[in-house]
Specification:
Number of strands: 11
CATH class of the largest domain: Alpha Beta
Number of domains: 2
CATH superfamily of the largest domain: P-loop containing nucleotide triphosphate hydrolases
Strand order of the largest sheet: 3-6-7-2-8-1-9-10-11
Largest sheet: 9 strands, mixed
CATH topology of the largest domain: Rossmann fold
Distance between the termini: 31 Å
Order of helices and strands: EHEHEHEEHEEHEHEHEHEHHHH
Oligomer: single chain
Number of helices: 12
Length: 310
């Protein structure tokens, strides 16, 4: 079983559009949407939810109004301004501001404050026309998105083992934060999709530093490469310098927006240069993963060797 992830330095680069199309090509696969803060792979794969379970995040303070005497000691120690007094001089908690630090529960002389787990979101197991899918929804303002990503990945892996699947395809979060670190864990290959802009060049450099820590072989896909050929060439050169594979270049097409509007993976929407480029990306990923030679002399492996020597 191989685990392949698709990430990007920022949102809006075409990560989910690419993932949805690869999902139609990856036979005998499980799909995991790990962009839990803004999951949208389901909008293109149109799965039917078969299981939905709550995800418990951190703790929050809960105040018993019967025991509270309004002494305000909890208000004095709360660093997050999560506590206030109501008209009855009873302390109340702003659940969005509470960080679950427990300080208020420690200073309350009446033991009126308790800590309770709160629901931070939900995770789902679904069935699409292309295979089973794991995804999640984090409640806006909640933390622990990295833990929810891990939950989605673990459920996807368990299902893949149970169903004897050949692939796990991970739609990762954008950026370089904690959710991205969780998404990168245990991957066999990662694709970084970027655009031919100065920010795309910069983001590739940023993401590369994170990927190197995981020692994962990586490839770069340049989306809309023909809109700025000069910068696209610079990004391609940077990919080689970083030791990343050049996994593909996808041309610009106005049809992509229409495919998204209709909720259809692009490769199922049109047969054109874009869909052929996406097909080439998938073939290239397989070539890199299943090449007969171990690849000890490839730039990516040379980087890993140098890192180990340090």
């Amino acid at each position: 079983m191989k685990q392949v992830g698709i990430i990007s330095g920022k949102g809006g680069t075409g990560k989910t559009v690419l993932t949805a199309s690869l999902a139609t090509l990856a036979e005998n696969a499980v799909f995991a949407d790990c962009d839990v803060d803004a999951s949208d792979l389901h909008l293109l794969l149109q799965p039917k939810v078969t299981t939905a379970e709550d995800f418990a995040g951190g703790e929050e303070a809960v105040i018993d109004p019967v025991l509270c005497t309004g002494c305000r000691e909890c208000l004095d120690v709360c660093r997050f301004d999560a506590l206030s007094m109501n008209e009855e001089s009873v302390a109340i908690v702003d659940s969005y501001a509470c960080e679950g630090c427990r300080t208020c529960s420690l200073v309350c002389p009446e033991n009126a404050v308790s800590m309770q787990r709160k629901t931070a979101g939900q995770w789902f197991r679904s069935e699409s026309s292309y295979g089973p899918m794991l995804h999640a929804r984090l409640i806006p303002g909640e933390d622990n998105s990295g833990k929810l990503v891990t939950k989605v990945k673990n459920e996807a892996k368990s299902l893949a083992v149970e169903k004897n699947k050949d692939w796990i395809l991970v739609d990762g979060p954008p950026g370089i934060g904690c959710p991205v670190l969780s998404a990168l864990a245990e991957l066999d290959y990662v694709i970084v999709i970027t655009e031919p802009t100065p920010s795309g060049y910069h983001d590739l450099n940023r993401v590369a530093e994170v990927i190197k820590q995981f020692r994962i072989r990586a490839g770069v896909v340049i989306n809309k490469h023909d809109l700025n050929p000069e910068t696209a060439s610079e990004i391609e050169a940077l990919a080689g310098k970083l030791g990343f594979d050049m996994a593909g270049k996808i041309p610009f097409s106005r049809n992509v927006g229409e495919a998204i509007r209709q909720g259809v993976p692009y490769i199922k929407y049109a047969e054109d240069e874009v869909s052929r480029a996406i097909l080439s990306v998938w073939e290239t990923i397989q070539d890199f993963l299943f090449e007969e030679r171990v690849g000890a002399d490839t730039p990516a492996n040379n980087i890993n060797t140098k890192e180990q020597e340090r």
